[in-house]
Design brief:
With 338 residues, this protein is of the alpha/beta class. The protein folds into 3 domains: 4-56, lambda repressor-like DNA-binding domains (434 Repressor (Amino-terminal Domain)); 61-164 and 300-326, Rossmann fold, CATH 3.40.50; 166-296 and 329-335, Rossmann fold. The protein has helices spanning 4-11, 15-22, 30-42, 49-56, 71-75, 77-92, 111-117, 133-142, 166-179, 195-210, 227-239, 252-264, 281-286, 298-314; strands at 61-66, 96-101, 105-106, 109-110, 124-127, 146-149, 160-164, 185-190, 220-222, 246-249, 274-278, 292-296, 322-325, 327-330. The strands form 3 sheets. A 6-stranded parallel sheet has the order 2-1-5-6-7-13, with helices on one face. The longest helix has 17 residues, at 298-314. The mean pLDDT is 89.
Length: 338
Amino acid sequence: MANIKEVAKAAGVSSSTVSRVINHSPSISDETKEKVFNVIKAMNYSPSSIAKALTNNKSYTVTLLVDVDDEKSFQNPFFYEIMHGIEKFVYKKEYSLIVANLNTTMKKESILDWLVKSKRTDGVILPSSILNSHIVKDLKREGVPFVAIGETTHLKESFSWVDIDNKKGAEMATYELLNNGFSRIAFIGLDKNKIFSNRRYEGYCSALEKSDLQLDKLIVIECINNKNEGYTQMKKLLESNSAPDAVICADNTISIGVIRAIQEKGLSIPKDIGIISFDTNQVAELLYPTVSTVNVNLFELGYQSAKILFEHIENNHTLDQGLLISTNIETRETTKSR
């Protein structure tokens, strides 16, 4: 494989000029850049990441900061979809992605301090659930770009973040049911401690209001998101005097329990009760009947998080921004017209 001196000789320029071309220096003319890149391609030259890092004081790595004590995140396949999206964009930029545990210490320093102060990372992506004012201030003080995955409301500092448009998704889910003849729509799985859940509830309320329908809080159910709770809460609703004719489930694990309760009652889906759920379509397609879903693009969530991070890395004057990723409705058997 050719080295930088051989590339410089073939292009008729100095080694330092080749280095500046590789690092996209604005001081090099377009004509020289084109000539050097043509020689690089012809000679199959690839500068080592170590050499590049030494040349321009960059690590050519970005860090995905996580909390490994949060077992639910690592057991959740959604985490790996997001990470796949991040890795896809990072690879495109010829960087490496490292995953670091927030609670690790290196030489008596927190992992974040160790990475930042020793210039071992050029940027950080982290879930908003572990972000706090201390981390924000440390990263800003050290001039390290970062992006949060998930909207936050508990911090006053400005920073870039990316999230799913949960409010719009819930509006679309409500309209899907209304347009198919359902009118008394329950919401099962509200968690007021989570921003994304509150945004979904806001979307549900907004769609009802725009449709001139009264919100009935008796059919808005706060519960843990699992199939047992879905079953228990749906069973209670069916035995009450305020039974719904349709249900929005916070996720597909809840919908498993909801379907079981409805079928045990001898009711038909969707003839008697319609169902739509958030999140993964893999489970939805395996259930009977197949469940209509609000699909969330978690790969795109990760991809756009990395894209915005590199905007900050490449231009330190980039303004902070919040980005919402659109959702779409996948209509299946549980919301067919009545």
